[in-house]
Amino acid sequence: MEIPKVGSIGEYIREQRRQAKISLRQLASQAGVSNPYLSQIERGLRKPSAEILNQIAKGLHISAQALYVQAGLIDDREPASDVVAAIRADITITERQRQVLIDIYESFRKDNDKEANDASLDRGQEDH
Predict the structure, then answer these.
(1) Are the CB atoms for 50 and 77 separated by under 8 Å?
(2) What does pLDDT average to in each consecutive run of 10 residues of the chain (128 residues)?
(3) Residue 128 burial (C-beta neighbours within 10 Å; 0-12, 13-18, 19+)
(4) Would you give the DSSP letter of residue 46?
(5) C-alpha span between 1 and 123 (Å, rounded)
(6) Are the beta carbons of 57 and 64 closer than 8 angstroms?
(7) DSSP 7
(8) To the nearest 10°, the Cα dihedral for 116, 119, 123, 128?
(9) DSSP string, 77-105
């Protein structure tokens, strides 16, 4: 799942907050951090921990993984698919809607991978 890169994690959080139409104060309250601390994160003066990123993600109703990748805490391991790229590029839906669509799509892919693996294991046992 490829996350569009922004200059910093703070800029990314600010953009997500604005798209969600949440005030700085509201997000700080939902994330359990102070207004000044969140403001410093958004301005790039502070680097949030993984725990704080998780709380911010919950407040924004987005994937914590998206914030971890943006902050450089984890690598974006899965190759981007055309479907995910198309969803991310669609400016007519909100970030939350994009994330829900991507989560559903990825769950379908995981289910199908599991079924394909199970079927190949079953075929392998029949050969013995």
Answers:
(1) no
(2) 56 90 95 95 90 91 81 66 82 88 87 76 62
(3) exposed
(4) S
(5) 31
(6) yes
(7) S
(8) 110
(9) -SPPPHHHHHHHH-TTS-HHHHHHHHHHH
Q: 102, 85 in Cβ contact below 8 A?
A: no
Q: At which residue do the structure tokens 């704080």 appear?
A: 52
Residue 73 token pair: 């805490």
Tell me the CA end-to-end span of the chain in Å, nearest whole number.
Answer: 38
Identify the residue whose tokens are 């921990």.
49
pTM of the full predicted structure?
0.56
Q: Which amino acid is at 81?
A: S
120-128 long-range contacts, Cβ below 8 Å, gap at least 24? none
Residue 67: HSE in the Cβ half-sphere, 13 Å Cα cutoff: 26
Tell which residue, 87, 90, 93, 119, has the closest CA to residue 105: 87
Interval 108-128: pLDDT, tens? 888 887 777 777 666 666 555
Alpha carbon of residue 25 to chain centroid: 22
Residues 107 and 85: beta-carbon distance below 8 Å: no
